[in-house]
Each structure stands twice: as structure tokens, then as C-alpha cells.
Write a structure and sequence with these properties.
The complex is a heterodimer of chains A (194) and B (245). Chain A has 194 residues and is an all-alpha fold. Chain A is built from 10 helices and no strands. Chain A has helices at 3-14, 18-40, 43-60, 70-88, 90-112, 120-125, 130-137, 142-152, 158-165, 169-193. Chain B is 46% helix and 21% strand. Chain B is elongated and about 100 Å long. The two termini of chain B are 47 Å apart. Classes of the chains: A mainly alpha (194), B alpha+beta (245). At the A-B interface, helix 2, helix 3, helix 4, helix 5 and helix 7 of A face helix 1, helix 2, strand 4 and strand 5 of B.
């Protein structure tokens, strides 16, 4: 969705136009869901917050300034809502986060044992199975996945991602590169296992 | 490097030795995201209709001067206190007046003092009840603390002096607009607001709850705490309302 299309849709949404909400939903549900999921870490919670995000969008629609980058605006609001959700449900999320960290460590350790060699070409030249990619994405740490999702799904710039996350741009690029390397290495491992 | 959305120039901000991702990998990644994303439209559609209805109801309630059960409780408690005081003081005063020919002034004076003390104690009890109710309300209000171990949680808060106003959109939905007049206090690294900046609350429901509970009026200045301040451009911000100060 271009900036112009979004401006029209959000202006109509401010007047209660449900069709405009559907247009925005169709264009950005996967980005918003991914961003929220990366923060809350649970499918059910991500579904709740994503639904709430689109419902509440009508309330904040008038605060959008035409001409400003709309995807960054949407992602900022979605991420803040997800963080807000964590605050209200901190106990459960903390437990989940602890589990995630352990998983990350295990996966990372296993990745460290894979040597980076010319076999990456096999991945690039061959067919990537959907299941492999799904598993490889689980190798990513939440922060890495968040940055990669914003970059690949949202096509946000590193500068925008840095502003949204409140972190230096160098940290964002490092997380992105780290995540991409990890994805490639995981895919190599799965290729070798087949 | 990646291209920006609106044009075909490369974004200089993206020149950071970015790891390359093949088209096939990118497509596989996006395909997987598509599979993982649930269809939430029916839920959202239903919620959207309810949101519109609730906004219309809230507007009607405000127009009718119904500011919620909490305000009613406070008003009722004040009325009870007034009745109790009147019920004790007036009969005592009348009794004192009627008996002034048969009792000496010292006795009447003692009765007045006793009645005044009793009524004061009762008023104190009622005030204490109200305070306890306020305390209970505060325990159920928006939490202002944060998960410090989680770096995704921004412990940013800002206390600002604002005026509040309701702005009605064309669809009938009312948004609270808080216009900043002064920054009172702020935590480190928080986005600072300036005089004239306008805030829209992402959690307007919680604001409404607190607003009703404390019987605020829109024609005054208030110190409020906000967090998760997000700029939406030209002096407009979206923030999470934390509470009245």
C-alpha cells in the first residue's frame, strides 16, 4: 500500500468506513501480527493484541499526519500495544520468555558447531523447503526476528527500525545480519540432514 | 541496500554491510509468515462495530451528565455525611433552644460540644470509607511499573501539565486530546514534549475509567503521567495514559 493509498484509507477510517479498515488490514496484518508476536511471544496473545490493534486503529486514525511514513507509524503503535500487553500480563510472559531464552541458547550452541563454508551455495541454488524455513526461523532470537520481520515484511529502513526500537542503528544492523547468517546456517544444516 | 517504498532511490540509511538474502530465501521467509498469520478479520469486524457503538454510548452518557458509578458513590457519600451532620446538630440545637429556660447555659454548651464531636467523628468515618474506596480503586488501576529484565519494555514516563478536550470525529467517536502546557518531570531518555503538543491516548478506555473515578472536568489543567510516547508528526503524539498525578 502506497503512502497515498494509506492516507486515503486512514482518512476514511476516521469517518467510520469499515471497508477502509479492511484494506489496511489486508495490507498489513502479517506485518502487524509478526511485530506483535515478536514481542508477546505467544500465538494466542498475538492474535488478541493484533485484533485489538486494528479495532483501536479507528481511535488513533486522526493522529496520523499525512505525509509521514505510515508503516513506521503503524509498527510503533502495534509494538507499544504489545509492550503494554506484556506489562499487564507480566507473570505469564516472563515464564514464557525464560523458556524462549533456553531454547535460543540451545539452538545457538548447535549453530555454532556448524562451519560456514561454500555449502551455502547449495542452499541458494536449491529449493528451500517451507518446513526448513519454518524451523530455521525458530533459530532466531526474538530481537533478531523482530528486526528481520520489520525489514523483510515491513520493508522499513534500518533508521526507522532503530527509531521504533529506541536502539542505535548499529545494533539494528548487527541484529539483522546476525539473524540472516543464522537463518542461512540453519538451512544448510537441514539441507545436510536430508 | 534496499529501496525505499515511494521511489527507486537506495536509502542511504541502509548502507551497513547488509547481509544478502537470496530471492528464494526471501520468498520462503515471506511464505512462511503468510502461513503463520491467522485470519482475524471476523473478530476485528465484530470488535469494530462494538467500538463504534460504545463510543456513541459514552458520548451520550457524558452528555447526560452520567459520569459513572464511582462518581455516584462519592456524591452519595457526601450527601449521607451532610444528612448525618444535620440530623444530629439541628435537633440538638433545637433541644438546646427549647430547654434554655430550664437548663443552665453550661449544660447546653456541653451538649453542643458532644454533638459536634459525634458528628465530626461520623464525618471522619465516612471520609475514611471514601479513602479506602479510593485506595481499592487505585489498586485496580493502570500499573505504572515495568519488567526491568525485559529490554523490550521501555521504562519511559513523563509527567506533564495538560488541558483535556474531547474531539468528536465525523463517525461520532470521541477522542481525548491532551494539550501539553508544561513538562513537570520525566525519566531518562524519554521523548520530551513541548508546549502545544497534543497527545492522543492509545488506552483511552483506561483513561475514561480514571477520569470518571476522579470526577475530573475537562475545563481544568491536570498533571498526568504518560508513557510509550510515539510521535505521529507535527506536534501530535500517541501515548499510553498512566494516571492522574
Amino acid at each position: 500500500m502506497t503512502d497515498e493509498m494509506f492516507q486515503t484509507a486512514i482518512a476514511n477510517l476516521a469517518q467510520g468506513d469499515k471497508d477502509s479498515l479492511k484494506l489496511i488490514y489486508q495490507a498489513y496484518v502479517r506485518l502487524i501480527y509478526a511485530v506483535i508476536y515478536d514481542v508477546v511471544g505467544r500465538k494466542e496473545d498475538a492474535e488478541d493484541v493484533t485484533s485489538e490493534f486494528f479495532i483501536k486503529l479507528v481511535r488513533v486514525s486522526k493522529s496520523f499526519i499525512p505525509g509521514s511514513p505510515h508503516k513506521a507509524w503503524l509498527v510503533k503503535i502495534a509494538r507499544n500495544m504489545a509492550i503494554d500487553y506484556i506489562r499487564k500480563n507480566r507473570r505469564e510472559v516472563l515464564l514464557a520468555a525464560t523458556g524462549d531464552d533456553k531454547t535460543d541458547d540451545n539452538v545457538e550452541n548447535s549453530i555454532e558447531n556448524i562451519g560456514a563454508d561454500g555449502k551455502e551455495c547449495r542452499i541458494e541454488d536449491g529449493t528451500i523447503l517451507a518446513e526448513d524455513m519454518k524451523t530455521a526461523m525458530q533459530c532466531l532470537k526474538p530481537k533478531e526476528k523482530e528486526v528481520i520481520d520489520m525489514k523483510l515484511i515491513g520493508q522499513l529502513t534500518f533508521k526507522e527500525i532503530a527509531e521504533i526500537r529506541g536502539t542505535p542503528i548499529g545494533t539494528v544492523t548487527w541484529l539483522y545480519n546476525q539473524g540472516i547468517r543464522k537463518l542461512r546456517r540453519c538451512l544448510i544444516e537441514y539441507e545436510q540432514d536430508r | 541496500m534496499s529501496k525505499t517504498d515511494n521511489n527507486n532511490i537506495y536509502d542511504i540509511n541502509d548502507i551497513h554491510n547488509e547481509e544478502e538474502l537470496t530471492d528464494e530465501m526471501l520468498q520462503a521467509y515471506l511464505d512462511n509468515v503468510d502461513v503463520e498469520t491467522p485470519d482475524l478479520w471476523e473478530r476485528i469486524e465484530a470488535g469494530f462495530d462494538v467500538e463504534i457503538e460504545n463510543s456513541a454510548d459514552a458520548k451520550k452518557n457524558r452528555t447526560n451528565g452520567n459520569t459513572g458509578s464511582r462518581q455516584g458513590l462519592r456524591r452519595y457519600a457526601g450527601l449521607v455525611a451532610a444528612i448525618v451532620v444535620c440530623a444530629i446538630v439541628i435537633p440538638v440545637a433545637m433541644l438546646s433552644s427549647n430547654n434554655k429556660n430550664t437548663k443552665n447555659d453550661n449544660v447546653a454548651y456541653d451538649s453542643d460540644i458532644t454533638a459536634a464531636q459525634e458528628s465530626a467523628e461520623m464525618a471522619d468515618d465516612i471520609a475514611e470509607d471514601i479513602q479506602q474506596a479510593d485506595s481499592a480503586l487505585n489498586q485496580n488501576s493502570v500499573s505504572t511499573d515495568c519488567i526491568k529484565a525485559d529490554d523490550a519494555c521501555n521504562q519511559e514516563s513523563l509527567t506533564v501539565l495538560v488541558t483535556l478536550e474531547y474531539a468528536t470525529a465525523d463517525n461520532g467517536i470521541e477522542n481525548v486530546l491532551a494539550t501539553v502546557h508544561k513538562v513537570i518531570s520525566y525519566s531518562e531518555d524519554v521523548k520530551l514534549l513541548e508546549d502545544g503538543d497534543v497527545i492522543t491516548f492509545i488506552n483511552q478506555d483506561e483513561f475514561e475509567e480514571m477520569y470518571k473515578a476522579y470526577n475530573k472536568k475537562t475545563d481544568g489543567e491536570y498533571e498526568i503521567a504518560v508513557t510509550d510516547v510515539t510521535e505521529s508528526g507535527n506536534g501530535s503524539y500517541v501515548a499510553r495514559f498512566v494516571g492522574f498525578q
